[in-house]
Amino acid sequence: MLSSLFIIQLGVIAMDIVVRFVELNPRIRGFVKESPDGFYNIYINSCLCREAQIKTYCHEIEHIKKNHLSSSRWVMDLEAEV
Ligand SMILES: [Zn+2]
């Protein structure tokens, strides 16, 4: 977990994944979006506590790992998988 914290603070977890902390609607914890240049941008609500930010980060990573961004399935089905 320590390394994950460090990685989050660094903001970049891999060559193709960037973590951004932005102020979002309180009902939105975060989301992930693929940019045209092939990067995955993980947006995390900066208003969340640190623990919730880490949970959100792990949640969005699961979406990437399960290739949900290129899926045409219903969002609710995808959310049930992570
Ligand atoms: Zn999700």
What does this structure look like?
The chain is of the alpha+beta class. It has one domain (4-81). The protein is built from three helices and four strands; from the N terminus they run αββββαα. It has helices at 2-10, 50-65, 75-81, and strands at 12-14, 17-22, 30-34, 40-45. It has a four-stranded mixed β-sheet with strand order 1-2-4-3, covered by helices on one side. The longest helix has 16 residues, at 50-65. It starts with a helix and ends with a helix. The model has no long low-confidence stretch (mean pLDDT 84). Zinc ion binds at residues 59, 63, 79, 82.
Rg computed from alpha carbons, rounded to a whole number of angstroms: 12 Å
DSSP strand count: 4
Largest sheet: 4 strands, mixed
Class from helix and strand fractions: alpha+beta
Q: How many individual helices?
A: 3
Give the total of domains.
1
Strand order of the largest sheet: 1-2-4-3
Distance between the termini: 19 Å
Please give the share of residues in helix: 25-40%
Pick out the low-confidence regions: none
Bound molecules: zinc ion
The coarse silhouette is: globular
Overall pLDDT: 84
Q: Classify the beta-strand content into a percent band.
A: 15-25%
Could you state the order of secondary-structure elements as H and E? HEEEEHH
Oligomer: single chain
Task: Name a few traits of the molecule.
82 residues; alpha+beta; 4-stranded mixed β-sheet; 39% helix; binds zinc ion
Could you give a quick summary of the protein structure above?
The protein has 82 residues and is of the alpha+beta class.
